[in-house]
Amino acid sequence: MSANLTDAADASRIGRYAMKTDSSPAIALGTRNRNETPAREIALWRIYLLRAGYLLIAVGMGMQKVPAFLKMLPLLFWEIACAGIRN
Predict the structure, then answer these.
(1) Which of 38, 47, 80, 85 has CB 3.0 to 4.6 Å from 30, enough for a Cys bridge?
(2) Which structural domain, as residue segments, surrounds residue 65?
(3) What is the pTM assigned to this prediction?
(4) pLDDT tens across 13-44, in order?
(5) Is 13 within a domain?
């Protein structure tokens, strides 16, 4: 019978990780019931680091896209003016 248990344990492996089959009614810390996921706190410095990264991306893209848009702006105004004259 122990051979069947080891075969079942080997069959439940995916790659090198075994599947977790624990069905105990444990309640996670920070939750009120079993179905609720616990909230994790994020360090404030990580939030500021993420914001700084987004700011860097926005400034970098702005430095590339705004001059290209300003270069095309007279052409855009010319096309709008021509379209207004035709209609």
Answers:
(1) 38
(2) 41-87
(3) 0.43
(4) 555 555 555 555 555 555 666 666 666 788 99
(5) no
